[in-house]
Amino acid sequence: MENVLARIRALGRRRPSGPLRDLIRDLVAIHGWATADELAGWLGMGKKYLRKRHLGPMLDAGRLRLRHPEEATHPEQAYGLPRRPPGASGSSGRTDGELGK
Asked: What are the extents of the domains in the chain?
């Protein structure tokens, strides 16, 4: 977890999309699911900007998935990692935990 916190600090104010999106995926992998509010808080970013600039494109590219894909504005909407195809190797990347603890 310390590595993730250090990566957040190292991004600085001007955050390149590639490293930021990798960090978003890592945060989602640690927590299993993360809301836009949670991600924005952890990253120190505005929720609307984060959704438009990063989360939306990551969904479109298949790098994230919605917990409630049938209702984009669901009050408990959260972002998770895509499901692995059957037979794919490796862990699911879904664990529970809290950032900073």
From this structure: 2-80
Q: What pLDDT does residue 96 have?
A: 40
Question: pLDDT tens digit string along 40-82?
Answer: 999 989 999 999 999 999 999 999 999 999 998 999 999 999 9
DSSP 57: H
Counting other chains too, the contacts that 77-80 makes at CB distance below 8 Å and 24 or more residues apart are: 77/35, 77/36, 78/33, 78/34, 78/35, 79/24, 79/28, 79/33, 79/34, 79/35, 79/36, 79/39, 79/55, 80/28, 80/32, 80/33, 80/34
Residue 65, helix vs strand vs coil = strand
Strands, E assignment, the chain:
65-66, 79-80
